[in-house]
Design goal:
The chain is of the alpha+beta class and about 350 residues long. Helices cover about 45% and strands about 10% of the residues. The protein folds into 2 domains: about 100 residues, Phosphorylase Kinase, domain 1; about 230 residues, Aminoglycoside phosphotransferase (APH), C-terminal lobe (Aminoglycoside 3'-phosphotransferase, Chain: A, domain 2).
């Protein structure tokens, strides 16, 4: 049975003989690479359990694409732009459930799963900084909020509370110490809420994992910010924090070697330098001061989300082995604890 039906391929002017294969390793959506001798195309099947309105994703992406294109034509945006690819009839969604959308394939770059060098970290942070800077004058509230409460720490704590109370699959006893530690950090909710009151709302990528930058080995730099599904109004502290949690460890997010999970100070330094360079002249003093809080919040929040999903029976994040989400949660909390341990050394880099 083919991965994609012939009518979907035909909508993008591919014949059934085109090569189709799964592409990438995202937790939420399923992504395909379609290619023939003439062209390559990325086709994404949007998970409508997470994104109930695929059209909103498309509309947001088109608005961002149009804005970045204007910036690029003015010489103000040095990166390649992730572009929506319409069907032959001009529409952007395909499939029986209207949950398939196509993206032009960007040549010349690759995704990085684990940062090996400070240069790679600097490139990622500069790329996401340049992306944010180019959108700084875009009215953020014109974008749809595609996932409500996505980076709402209070909401994530309430989800954890519900998962603990429900204990649906009887896993609470096996991770009680981790649960207790997470609950002891709830005061961070108030600190975050008070901080955000003094910050401007920005267009945020909201998923600044290292593998959402395309990196050119030939040029030694990032060439594009990709995976714009979660672009919506927010605060830059979250984007910086997500880079810290995904770039700073020498181990992958789901490492089975938890003792090696740590914050590498040289990588953190490179992230701070790259992001602040990308946002030079735009980022406000309050935003700059908030970045340290963002690093702490994102490590803790994603840890809480993995832990709640483990308690709920792995209903949100894809898992590939027993206790997969618990292992992910433990790794995030190790990063959080290491940030706290290195605060005196690392926080001044953001001032």
């Amino acid at each position: 049975m083919p991965l994609l039906p012939a009518d979907v391929l035909a909508a993008y002017q591919f014949t059934p003989e085109a090569t189709v294969r799964l592409f990438g390793n995202g937790h939420i959506n399923r992504t395909y690479l379609i290619e023939n001798s003439i062209q390559k195309l990325i086709l994404q099947q949007i998970n409508t359990q997470i994104f109930p309105s695929p059209q909103h994703l498309v509309d947001n992406a088109l608005r961002i694409e149009q804005h970045l294109t204007r910036k690029q034509l003015q010489g103000l945006y040095p990166l390649q732009i992730l572009r929506q690819q319409p069907r032959h009839d001009g529409h952007y969604l395909s499939g029986e459930q209207a949950d398939l959308r196509a993206l032009a394939f960007i040549d010349g770059g690759r995704s990085i799963e684990v940062v090996d060098t400070p240069a790679q970290a600097f490139a990622a942070a500069l790329t996401f900084g340049q992306f944010a800077a180019a959108l700084a004058d875009f009215p953020a509230d014109e974008l749809y909020t595609v996932i409500a409460d996505f980076h709402n720490l209070g909401f994530r704590f309430r989800q954890l509370d519900d998962a603990i109370a429900g204990n649906k699959v009887g896993r609470l006893a096996g991770c009680q110490d981790l649960v207790n530690y997470c609950l002891s950090q709830r005061s961070l909710v108030t600190e975050l809420e008070q901080t955000c009151v003094g910050l401007p709302r920005r267009v945020c990528h909201n998923d600044t994992k290292i593998n959402n930058m395309l990196y050119s080995d030939a040029e030694g730099r990032g060439i594009a910010a990709i995976d714009l599904d979660t672009c919506m109004p927010g605060y830059w502290l979250f984007d910086f924090g997500d880079m810290v949690r995904t770039c700073c460890s020498p181990e992958p997010e789901d490492s089975l070697n938890p003792a090696a999970v740590r914050i590498r100070p040289e990588i953190f330094t490179a992230l701070a330098q790259g992001y602040l360079q990308g946002l030079a002249g735009i980022i406000t003093p309050a935003e700059r001061q908030s970045l340290w809080l963002g690093a702490k919040v994102m490590c803790l929040m994603i840890g809480i989300r993995f832990l709640a999903d483990h308690l709920n029976g792995d209903t949100y994040f894809a898992v590939h082995r027993p206790n997969h989400n618990l292992q992910r949660a433990e790794n995030q909390l190790r990063l959080y604890l290491d940030l706290l341990a290195q605060q005196d050394q690392l926080q001044p880099l953001l001032k």
